[in-house]
Amino acid sequence: MGLPLPSKVLEHILSFIDSNEDRNSVSLVCKSWFDTERRTRKRVFVGNCYSVSPVTVSRRFPKMRSLTLKGKPHFADYNLVPDGWGGYAWPWIEVLAKKNPLLEEIRLKRMVITDECLEMIAASFKEFKALVLVSCEGFTTDGIAAIAATCRNLEVLELRECIVEDLGGDWLSYFPESLTSLVSLDFSCLDSEVKLSDLERLVSRSPNLKSLKLNRAVTLEGLESLLRRAPQLTDLGTGSFSAEFEPEMFSKLSKAFAECKQLKSLSGLWDVIPEYLPALYSVCPGLTSLNLSYATVRMPDLVGILRRCWKLQKLWVMDLIEDKGLQTVAMRCKDLRELRVFPSEPDLDDVSVALTEEGLVTVSRSCRKLESILYFCVQFTNAALVTISRYRPNIKCFRLCVIEPFAPDHITREPLDEGFRAIVEGCKDLRRLSVSGLLTDKAFEYIGKHAKKVRMLSIAFAGDSDLMLHHLLSGCEGLKKLEIRDCPFGDSALLEHAAKLETMRSLWMSSCFVSFGACKVLSQKLPKLNVEVIDEMYPPESRPENSPVERIYIYRTLAGPRLDMPEFVWTIHKNPEVGVSNLAIK
Amino acid sequence: MRGESEEEVGKSNLPVESELELGLGLSLGGSAWRERGRILTAKDFPCVGSKRAADSSSSSHQGASPPRSSQVVGWPPIGLHRMNSLVNKAARAEEEEGKKKVDELKDVTMKVNGKVEGLGFVKVNMDGDGIGRKVDIRAHSSYENLAQTLEEMFFGMKGTTSMEKAKPLRLLDGSSDFVLTYEDKEGDWMLVGDVPWRMFITSVKRLRIMGTAEANGLAPRHQKQKERQRNNNPV
């Protein structure tokens, strides 16, 4: 029992601690540590915007300078969450504008944010520096214009994969001539053409600009002109490469790229034709990150680029790379840490590429640092999975999507149970796992038993019975997020292991066999959780007890029932006659 | 494999009341579930060369063509932007081959059909069939075209393997047991076929194949407008 640490000393120590996980631990030590920590935390992360109220967060962290919020569940990315479900930014912005006017950074993922919200941000935070919107929707380019026009110290404006109502390209012209602080600009998801001369002037007067991601409407001429004005870029997303090859354009581009000696990351490359690829050769040796996942270049045209990128750590590509291209990657990209291979055809019947499990095996064998994998493939085998796990026990993120649901090992016709068993047994540091292919309950017995550190687990079209869920919920000690679709389990495992849900951030289930009655029972058993039934088929008053519900979303929360539920979302707190609450959703 | 696991369920140590009847058409008590349909099982997806494809006898929808992986909602799991890019790429390729005009693409953008999965994809549900599918509206040129695709999708008109061929559907002329309806921008459910095709594709949000009995409450658009006018101008 020594003397308590003076708070000034503790504050100084805490100034070295950035990670929120560490800070959360610090705040649990004792009341005075909690107080000191909360008064000094600058970057706040809220993984589920409904887990806590904006007022609580604002009050707890008065010195907050950066807020990150996540809204809709992950499966919203695949259109499984109906429109109007929720995830509104307004209640947060409203509170922060009043109580935390010194806020500098807002990062939102899968949230709904309106032009009014954006205008409020622009008007309320005098020191505002950074806006990052990922997979958000609900706003137009007018809202972006408001940010551009008003935030005098803006450094970061990134719109990534957002659904924006595009009213034209003039939003860019709202950046005042006095704005010279821009560090990062990403408008790759917008459609409309911006005025090139305005963009050129903006780039010219932004000496700190490091990251520029253009939209498809920017032409090759535009790209070349911009590169000449910003050779200091470290991160570039090109616009569209025109369909016709012009030797003069090629040589101008090559020269412009050659001047970009600090370029580390390259993306965009829509419609790039093979003839233009050599223009990129000069930057390849310096690249650590390459996103070719929108480039429809086939083999062997990709080889030239791949074999020059010997420092590559992150590669995103389409299955057009084929097993052959992955061989080149295996040979040359020894520093590779993350590989993502996306499908080039959503329709199984039209798939015509030679990408098999062998491609991934080859890379896993040779790239010692490979720890993050996302792989879409038509087929897979247990043997491949076993080999991958043997060579790469250091894998932290393994997401395999065998495109055809229920596809067995294509050689033995067995389920992929043993393959995934090898993965979870061998890769002891696995944090994220997505499974696919034909899987019986056995696979989940292995996962439950061995995937101790897995925090996020995604499952589709798998399992045989309640046993599957029983295995997962009675094992998987580190599980925080579980998302399941189209699996044949019902009520019993869920009800039996209800307590586990209190240790998790969230559980999503859609198209399974959980009944409405079970949801009601769960809601009563778990008062600290929101049990949402999301079902567009039945109006709430007439939903039968034993009918399976379309979707369930269960999450822990300190904020109680949410007040902005649409008609098709039901929780036990809701009075079905009253319907949607009257929270003003601006 | 599936047969084995059905035996295993009996051996599980779950309480008796939780025992499930496995197989297609899972019943949880009451007809409500039968109306809702079923989740997809392996029999729905033809594995090339798989022995499972051989036992296709107990499909509860005789002659239904199995959904292709791109017809299942949210599958394969790639984000909207990426899906759009793939769809557009295919459309552009067809344009280059002179197969169809692509200028229609620019009409129906994300902001009008914000609820569709990828430009032009709308969800289609049929009463009694729990499988949600999607169809690319703008890959079609007319109502007949669309009806044909839907009939193939849900009733396996093309290359059906069942012994008993399903009756020709005639989704559009009201002569069958089913009727095609759609939800428009305002959230109203309408009968498909009344408005000009080009107007339809800009206002459709999703489709539903309804039993004729249930559809009797629906009025075609022009009738609804007449009713509104009548209500506003009582004589």
TrEMBL record, chain A:
<dbReference type="GO" id="GO:0005737">
    <property type="term" value="C:cytoplasm"/>
</dbReference>
<keyword id="KW-0927">Auxin signaling pathway</keyword>
<protein>
    <recommendedName>
        <fullName>F-box domain-containing protein</fullName>
    </recommendedName>
</protein>
<dbReference type="InterPro" id="IPR041101">
    <property type="entry name" value="Transp_inhibit"/>
</dbReference>
<dbReference type="InterPro" id="IPR006553">
    <property type="entry name" value="Leu-rich_rpt_Cys-con_subtyp"/>
</dbReference>
<keyword id="KW-0217">Developmental protein</keyword>
<dbReference type="GO" id="GO:0043224">
    <property type="term" value="C:nuclear SCF ubiquitin ligase complex"/>
</dbReference>
<dbReference type="InterPro" id="IPR032675">
    <property type="entry name" value="LRR_dom_sf"/>
</dbReference>
<dbReference type="GO" id="GO:0010152">
    <property type="term" value="P:pollen maturation"/>
</dbReference>
<keyword id="KW-0833">Ubl conjugation pathway</keyword>
<comment type="pathway">
    <text>Protein modification; protein ubiquitination.</text>
</comment>
<dbReference type="Pfam" id="PF18791">
    <property type="entry name" value="Transp_inhibit"/>
</dbReference>
<keyword id="KW-0539">Nucleus</keyword>
<dbReference type="GO" id="GO:0031146">
    <property type="term" value="P:SCF-dependent proteasomal ubiquitin-dependent protein catabolic process"/>
</dbReference>
<dbReference type="InterPro" id="IPR001810">
    <property type="entry name" value="F-box_dom"/>
</dbReference>
<feature type="domain" description="F-box">
    <location>
        <begin position="5"/>
        <end position="46"/>
    </location>
</feature>
<dbReference type="GO" id="GO:0010011">
    <property type="term" value="F:auxin binding"/>
</dbReference>
<dbReference type="Pfam" id="PF18511">
    <property type="entry name" value="F-box_5"/>
</dbReference>
<dbReference type="InterPro" id="IPR041567">
    <property type="entry name" value="COI1_F-box"/>
</dbReference>
<dbReference type="GO" id="GO:0009734">
    <property type="term" value="P:auxin-activated signaling pathway"/>
</dbReference>
UniProtKB/TrEMBL annotation, chain B:
<dbReference type="Pfam" id="PF02309">
    <property type="entry name" value="AUX_IAA"/>
</dbReference>
<protein>
    <recommendedName>
        <fullName>Auxin-responsive protein</fullName>
    </recommendedName>
</protein>
<dbReference type="InterPro" id="IPR003311">
    <property type="entry name" value="AUX_IAA"/>
</dbReference>
<comment type="subunit">
    <text>Homodimers and heterodimers.</text>
</comment>
<dbReference type="GO" id="GO:0006355">
    <property type="term" value="P:regulation of DNA-templated transcription"/>
</dbReference>
<feature type="domain" description="PB1">
    <location>
        <begin position="119"/>
        <end position="212"/>
    </location>
</feature>
<feature type="region of interest" description="Disordered">
    <location>
        <begin position="215"/>
        <end position="235"/>
    </location>
</feature>
<keyword id="KW-0678">Repressor</keyword>
<dbReference type="InterPro" id="IPR053793">
    <property type="entry name" value="PB1-like"/>
</dbReference>
<keyword id="KW-0804">Transcription</keyword>
<feature type="region of interest" description="Disordered">
    <location>
        <begin position="49"/>
        <end position="76"/>
    </location>
</feature>
<comment type="similarity">
    <text>Belongs to the Aux/IAA family.</text>
</comment>
<keyword id="KW-0927">Auxin signaling pathway</keyword>
<dbReference type="InterPro" id="IPR033389">
    <property type="entry name" value="AUX/IAA_dom"/>
</dbReference>
<keyword id="KW-0805">Transcription regulation</keyword>
<dbReference type="GO" id="GO:0005634">
    <property type="term" value="C:nucleus"/>
</dbReference>
<feature type="compositionally biased region" description="Basic and acidic residues">
    <location>
        <begin position="226"/>
        <end position="235"/>
    </location>
</feature>
<keyword id="KW-0539">Nucleus</keyword>
<dbReference type="GO" id="GO:0009734">
    <property type="term" value="P:auxin-activated signaling pathway"/>
</dbReference>
<feature type="compositionally biased region" description="Low complexity">
    <location>
        <begin position="49"/>
        <end position="70"/>
    </location>
</feature>
<comment type="function">
    <text>Aux/IAA proteins are short-lived transcriptional factors that function as repressors of early auxin response genes at low auxin concentrations.</text>
</comment>
